[in-house]
Design brief:
This protein is an alpha+beta fold. It has 3 helices and 8 strands, in the order αααββββββββ.
Length: 166
């Protein structure tokens, strides 16, 4: 029997290396382009409209924060499901644990990283320090809750937090 002819090995040439390098970097550019595009459309990154104006009232905001801390109000916000809708329930108590009544509370509920699903509204007082706002149908997950509580048109409490909706 005759020996089979030896297989010819493929040679690695400069063209092959160039194609591998261009292919690798091409995939990286496409992936990075997708991530940059998605980051730009998913969250605007804006916390305040004008940093300059926020800086102008910085000392006033510090004084308001100190006054809020001295009041030591306990304001608890929860999202609860009721008959297909989601209701924001806020319980407000002073530092002695007494119910806070007569407040005007404004709320903004939305996803932590996008403003597309934000819901804003004024809470209705139900008595005994309970305030509610119907938000309609919301998906489960993490939600950002911003609260501004006013007493006689004066901002007395400001809060930003997150809660989970089952």
């Amino acid at each position: 029997m005759a020996n089979p002819a030896p297989k010819k090995q493929k040679e690695l040439t400069g063209k092959h290396v160039l194609m591998w390098v261009l292919g690798f970097f091409g995939v990286m550019f496409i992936a990075n382009g997708f991530f940059v595009y998605y980051a730009n459309i998913s969250w605007p990154g804006v916390e305040v409209e004008s940093s300059y104006k926020e800086g102008q009232v910085y000392d006033q905001k510090l004084a308001e924060a100190r006054a809020q801390q001295q009041r030591a109000w306990a304001i608890d916000a929860q999202l609860k499901r009721s008959a297909g809708d989601v209701i924001l329930v806020v319980e407000a108590k002073d530092k002695q644990g007494n119910a806070l009544t007569g407040l005007s509370i404004k709320a903004e509920v939305g996803r932590p990283i996008t403003e597309a699903q934000d819901h804003k509204g004024d809470l209705s007082e139900k008595g005994d320090g309970l305030y509610t706002l119907s938000l309609g149908a919301l998906d489960p997950g993490r939600w950002r809750v911003k609260l501004d509580a006013f007493e006689k048109d004066e901002l007395k409490f400001k809060s930003v937090g997150q809660t989970t909706l089952e």
